Amino acid sequence: MNTNTTPTPPQPHPPPNPDALPHPITFFTTARERSAILKALRRLSPDRRTALCKSLGIKADSTNSPNSSASPSAARRAAGM
Predict the structure, then answer these.
(1) What is the DSSP letter of 21?
(2) Three-state secondary structure call for residue 19
């Protein structure tokens, strides 16, 4: 008689709330425009999202900050994963 049993694998984590995940914004520019935009944003903050919000007069949410767009692991932490 074999008493060895296969352990039950752990249950996966529930999916994150989509509202807690960062949402991308994508648009196209020329290389020269991109360079100028990034230079202007760096003057305001090292974090592009924060700099863009600041330049538009929008109060940046603190839930996905800083650098949430640059770090997938930070996005997962913000989503509770």
Answers:
(1) S
(2) helix
Interatomic CA distance for residues 75 and 70, integer angstroms: 9
Structure tokens at 44: 């305001």
Residue 70 makes CB contacts below 8 A (sequence gap 6+) with: 48
Return the closest-CA partner of residue 49 out of 35, 69, 78, 63: 69
* Full-model pTM: 0.57
Question: How many other CB atoms are found less than 10 A from the CB of residue 24?
Answer: 6
How confident is the prediction along the chain (81 residues), in pLDDT tens digits per residue? 566 788 999 999 999 999 889 899 999 999 999 999 999 999 999 999 999 999 999 998 875 554 544 444 444 444 443
Beta carbons of 40 and 55 less than 8 angstroms apart: yes
CA distances from 37 to 6, 31, 56, 72 (A): 57, 10, 13, 23
